[in-house]
Automatic annotation (TrEMBL):
This is Toll-like receptor 8. The keyword Ribonucleoprotein does not apply. It comes from the Eukaryota. Residues 1-125 form the TIR domain. It is found in: Endomembrane system. One of its GO terms (biological process) is defense response to virus.
Length: 144
């Protein structure tokens, strides 16, 4: 998380501020409220996926809230960062890759690919997901 914070918030020509639970959430506010506000007021919601995290209630709630924003406001904020090969048999992941494959980013398998990975992640976080939609499906999901 520290590396992610530094790479997105401090490096590159454009600084991309993050909303991090341990740093930015006010103490004493219920988790649901903090999570709802974070997703509601953020341009993107970056899910850093590990085997352990995808099994938690927090992940399921956050994913539900991000999908609610897509359904209610037609705003797609979801970006998946696959740190580990998780959800490989998930219908959701297959649909996500078809609809907006660029919003699913995998951690590089070699150190040589890390520079490209960070550049790609910064680009995905900056660009509106609907611009990256697969053209076959975009007419169903984009604002008219």
């Amino acid at each position: 998380m520290k590396n992610l914070r530094v790479k997105l918030e401090e490096e590159g020509e454009t600084h991309l501020p993050l909303c991090l639970e341990e740093r930015d959430w006010p103490p004493g506010i219920p988790l649901v409220d903090n999570l709802t506000q974070s997703i509601q007021y953020s341009r993107k919601t970056l899910f850093v996926l590990t085997e352990g995290y995808v099994k938690t209630g927090v992940f399921k709630l956050a994913m539900y809230l991000a999908h609610q924003r897509l359904l209610d406001e037609n705003v797609d904020v979801i970006v998946l960062l696959m740190l580990e090969p998780v959800l490989q048999h998930s219908h959701f992941l297959r649909l996500r890759r078809r609809l907006c494959g660029k919003s699913v980013v995998e951690w590089p398998r070699t150190a040589a690919a890390e520079a490209w990975f960070w550049q790609n992640l910064r680009s995905v976080v900056r660009v509106d997901n609907q611009v990256m939609y697969n053209k076959t499906y975009s007419k169903y999901f984009t604002n008219k």
